[in-house]
Amino acid sequence: MINNIIIIISILVSVAFYTILERKILGYIQIRKGPNKVGILGILQPFSDALKLFNKNIISSENMNYMLSYMSPALSLFISMLMIPIISFNSFSLYDNKHNILLFFILSSISVYFILLIGWSANSKYSQLGSIRSVAQMISYEVSFFMIILFLSIMSLSYSFNEISYSQMFMSFFYGNIILFYMWIITCLAETNRSPFDFAEGESELVSGFNVEYMGGWFALIFLAEYMSMLILSMISIIMFFHSLSSTFTWLILIMISIILLWIRGTFPRFRYDMLMKLSWMIFLPIIIMIIPFSMNYSFLFN
Predict the structure, then answer these.
(1) For the chain, how many structural domains are there in total?
(2) In whole angstroms, what is the distance from residue 230 CA to residue 225 CA?
(3) What span is annotated as the signal peptide, if there is one (predicted)?
(4) In percent, how much of the chain has pLDDT > 90?
């Protein structure tokens, strides 16, 4: 229990610094400073923002479903926090069982429902349209997301993150599956509703998307859930493709992947929605379906 609490607090603090990193990167991409007043080089800005957001008055409209509006942002963050114990740190996870990948599948699927609840409970057409878009996008990319994990599970003959780490003792899966890794990163961006796939928050057509009626502490919880899921998927990327989070090299790759997820936001414009769906169903899915038989042959030959 103490280990769980320490790791969850550490990741919450890392999420705070991850937001300042994003604002700095986007600032320098746009030839400006970014936050630089609060603390040394603006390093305490996230804590200042958190205090400001949680001290704001929450205004709720008459047509809102109060119970769901208050619960759903917290539950979305809670689901993200539940994924932390199943991640392998130094070939050891806090919640270690033989099928923790299946648990990860279940938790990531449940998170879709909370985004739908956030949009529906606000009783705003923009909010509901944003959440429906988000659910359609996440369900579409979950297919390729799970198929990639299934491919790596077949390669290692296990549904455990630890076993996948052990099966990469001699050579990481990345070196033979660079195209698959590229597809995985794009799928992670789509799963977390990040730019250029941020259709749930389309400012140009949906005002602010599914969180348009949420302010103050509500918005902070939704914001924390999004950034925490980005960090968790970055860690899972390392376990899946680069052995485990047990060496300085893999931690450097983790930092690099985390920065790439932020860098893409400042580089690419938003996709068109039909192109997003076409990418998932007509490009990614056929490629993965063709690749899986090779992994089955590999596992039979070498295991």
Answers:
(1) 1
(2) 9
(3) none
(4) 1
